[in-house]
Design a protein that fits this description.
Keywords: Hydrolase. This is Metal-dependent hydrolase. The chain contains 11 helices and no strands. The chain has about 300 residues and is mainly α. Helix 4 packs across helix 7. About 40% of the residues are buried.
Length: about 300
């Protein structure tokens, strides 16, 4: 049985403050199969959903941070936020290209799902028009905490990508690099959304309310996206039990995060002493980003 264990920075390995910046990247997916983890079609398709879900979500992160940035008087935090904005914008662009150049080539039209994501993130979760300045700022802070709660999971998934068994299972190196590069940057900037929200107000109520929205929201979008991909993928025909079994098989093989690890990470978010720096290893993330073939190709 294969397991993947979370990593943590230590005083011996922590490189200290890292300047955040966007990296140009280029991923060649022209030869990447649809089931890019051999023998794991369910795991491949489940992770592929992120290519469809992430771009609109990350553009929403960027929009929310751009709205908050003029109110930030702490220059160090403002610099981190600008780096975060650049990285998230590049993530959206990279995953958009994967959909356009890779999924479409495999005969999957993602537009029905991506149109839904556009409506949710731009219309439902976008800035609220009208109201007093105080009401608009309150709504902004609520969105910042929701971003922070979602970023809790992106950091967990980023740490998973850096330590999972995709390579050992023969995963396509270019698709793997796309997700590990993205995951490494999520670990690198894992504290920024939390610190930006806490700059305005930091209470357990804010954190709990945001997580109460983020967890079912993300679960719904991922499951909906997974059903969409599986319905579009004519090469796999399995029922609901087979899909669940495929997920657990992927977890045992270390190519998908285990549900119990995700639930444990959710509970950790409510610890009074919680801080995102408790997730992942900055040195590991930075080392991968220095060696990522996709980043080196575009340098």
């Amino acid at each position: 049985m294969t397991t993947t264990q979370p990593t943590h920075s230590t005083p011996e390995t922590d490189p200290g403050k890292v300047e955040l910046h966007a990296r140009n990247v280029e991923f060649d997916l022209s030869q990447t199969p649809l089931h890019w983890i051999p023998g794991h079609p369910v795991a491949s398709n489940f992770i592929t959903v992120l290519n469809l879900l992430l771009p609109e979500g990350e553009r929403w992160f960027v929009e929310t941070f751009n709205e908050a940035l003029p109110m930030i008087k702490d220059e160090e935090l403002a610099a981190d936020m600008r780096g975060f904005i650049g990285q998230e914008a590049m993530h959206a662009e990279a995953h958009d290209r994967a959909v356009e150049e890779w999924l479409n080539r495999h005969g999957i039209d993602a537009k029905p799902y991506t149109d839904q994501m556009e409506w949710i993130f731009r219309r439902v979760l976008g800035p609220r028009e009208g109201g007093t300045p105080e009401q608009r700022q309150k709504h902004l802070v609520e969105r910042l905490w929701l971003v922070a709660a979602i970023e809790h999971y992106t950091a967990i998934l980023g740490d998973f990508a850096l330590n999972c068994t995709w390579a050992e299972n023969g995963a396509d190196p270019n698709m793997m690099d796309l997700f590990v590069w993205h995951g490494a940057e999520e670990v690198e900037h894992r504290a920024v959304a939390h610190d930006a929200a806490a700059y305005f107000t930091d209470t357990m109520f804010n954190r709990a309310r945001a997580m109460g929205l983020a967890l079912p929201f993300l679960a719904l979008l991922l499951v909906r996206g997974f059903r969409f991909i599986m319905n579009e993928d004519g090469s796999v025909s399995i029922g609901p039990i087979g899909k669940v079994a495929g997920y657990y098989r992927g977890g045992r093989a270390g190519v998908l995060p285990k549900i119990r690890h995700l639930l444990g990470a959710t509970f950790s978010y409510f610890k009074p002493s919680f801080h995102p720096h408790d997730i992942g290893d900055t040195a590991q993330a930075v080392a991968y980003l220095a060696s990522s073939p996709g980043a080196r190709r575009a340098a």
